[in-house]
């Protein structure tokens, strides 16, 4: 039981290390995750031993190089990011808008890839590796809608839904209705709910078992998004289907030269 409790604390500890705050001390970690200083020290020391953290001078800790090795292992296999890359690029280039690829991690969105749009007035979008609450983003709702209602209740609706803009959904009942609409329509919208005047549409990507594993999206300023909303919707659903087909076919890591052309046809369809 003690070993299980220790494992359950690893995630919250690693979550503390961000681009904005890459370094932490023992006392700070103890306070942040709510454990005694001795327990925090033991946990940090264990993570150093396996290379996930490194101990710097003055007892300060940073992410370790083992993370880089694990990342290389992940990228060396056929995964959703590899399969989505040419389609994500084609989607962005066709419309000049920013396109994102995201997954769900502990009921929050994690952005794993993006292509920035080419318009003069553009949306830079979320940073790769960034996390965002699922209830206020199109990719988040596209992913969340395919989770079991009981899981959503326990992990999302039991806590207050943070308001980011006046348009953010903060009612559990309203979010439940929204997620049912996502299932009916095959896509999800963000109408300025995460960032004011920035809209988004996303569609789910499935693996070979039919399980939703990621979502792909187009993000644009509301002034351009609203007139093109239905075209963007069709394009994103087409892109998601193309990634699903690529993923289920176990496309090798080396992308064929004509893949982007095929992706454009899928998006147009």
Automatic annotation (TrEMBL):
Source organism, top-level taxon: Bacteria
TM segment ranges: none
Entry's Gene Ontology molecular function annotations: DNA binding; DNA-binding transcription factor activity
Keywords associated with the record: DNA-binding, Transcription, Transcription regulation
Domain HTH iclR-type: 4-65
InterPro entries cross-referenced by the UniProt entry: GAF-like_dom_sf, HTH_MetabolicPath_Reg, Tscrpt_reg_IclR_C, Tscrpt_reg_IclR_N, WH-like_DNA-bd_sf, WH_DNA-bd_sf
One biological process term in Gene Ontology: negative regulation of DNA-templated transcription
PROSITE patterns according to UniProt: HTH_ICLR, ICLR_ED
KW DNA-binding (keyword) present: yes
Keyword Transcription regulation: yes
Domain IclR-ED, residue spans: 66-253
Official protein name in the record: IclR family transcriptional regulator
Organism: Gordonia oryzae
């Amino acid at each position: 039981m003690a070993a299980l409790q220790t494992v359950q604390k690893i995630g919250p500890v690693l979550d503390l290390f961000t681009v904005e705050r890459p370094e932490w001390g023992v006392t700070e970690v103890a306070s942040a995750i709510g454990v005694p200083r001795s327990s925090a020290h033991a946990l940090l020391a264990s993570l150093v031993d396996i290379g996930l953290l490194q101990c710097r001078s003055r007892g300060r800790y940073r992410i370790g190089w083992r993370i880089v090795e694990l990342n290389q292992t992940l990228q060396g296999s056929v995964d959703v990011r590899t399969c989505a890359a040419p389609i994500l690029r084609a989607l962005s280039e066709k419309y000049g808008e920013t396109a994102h690829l995201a997954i769900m991690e502990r009921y929050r969105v994690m952005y794993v890839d993006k292509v920035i749009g080419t318009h003069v007035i553009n949306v830079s979008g979320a940073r790769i590796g960034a996390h965002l609450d699922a209830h206020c983003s199109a990719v988040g709702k596209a992913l969340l809608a395919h989770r079991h209602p009981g899981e959503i209740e326990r992990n999302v609706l039991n806590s207050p839904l943070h308001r980011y803009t006046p348009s953010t959904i903060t009612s559990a009942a309203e979010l439940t209705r929204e997620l049912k609409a996502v299932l009916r329509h095959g896509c999800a919208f963000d109408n300025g709910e995460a960032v004011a005047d920035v809209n988004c549409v996303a569609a789910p990507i499935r693996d070979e078992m039919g399980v939703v594993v990621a979502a792909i999206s187009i993000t644009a300023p509301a002034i351009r998004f609203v007139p093109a909303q239905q075209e963007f919707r069709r394009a994103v659903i087409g892109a998601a289907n193309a990634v699903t087909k690529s993923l289920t076919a176990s496309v090798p890591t080396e992308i064929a030269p004509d893949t982007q052309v095929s992706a454009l046809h899928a998006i147009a369809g």
